[in-house]
Specification:
This protein is an alpha+beta fold and 133 residues long. The protein is built from 2 helices and 6 strands; from the N terminus they run E-E-E-E-E-E-H-H. A 6-stranded antiparallel β-sheet has the order 1-2-3-4-5-6, with no helix packed on it. Strand 5 and strand 6 form a beta hairpin. The protein is globular.
């Protein structure tokens, strides 16, 4: 088992680090681990949140890892001084890790898939909202 911990990533400027603070470790299968960006604007309920859970597939031949990340756009209402959510970007993803795969292949999948999502091309496509042509 992997120990739960805070996660440090680069912000959009690709230089500044930001820490996603561990809020709660997973309580076991299908129970999500939760991280929150505590330095983001707004109240705790208005800040970006990452959830990760894992479970067996039906025949127990693979593990499924599910992710959900919500990233709200928060603003302060000048008339009330209260923070509100304008809109929220949501990411959901799931990866199946078959137990029949070689350890080396599982390791490559575990590293390459997130690295592909973090590539400059994919980030740019997400910024503009279109797949590359």
């Amino acid at each position: 088992m992997t120990a739960a911990a805070d996660i440090t990533v680069k912000k959009g400027d690709e230089t500044t680090n930001i820490v996603w603070t561990l809020v709660s470790a997973s309580g076991g299968d299908a129970s999500p681990a939760l991280w929150r960006s505590e330095t983001a604007a707004g109240t705790k309920g208005q800040r970006p949140l990452l959830q990760m859970s894992s479970r067996w597939n039906g025949p127990k031949t693979a593990r499924r890892v599910d992710f959900t990340c919500t990233f709200p756009s928060v603003y302060t209402d000048v008339s009330t001084g209260l923070t509100n959510i304008r809109d929220t970007s949501v990411f959901t993803g799931s990866i199946v890790l078959p137990y029949g795969m070689l350890d080396a292949d599982l390791k490559e999948a575990a590293h390459q898939i997130p690295n592909l999502l973090a590539s400059t091309l994919i980030k740019t496509c997400l910024e503009v909202g279109f797949a590359p042509v």
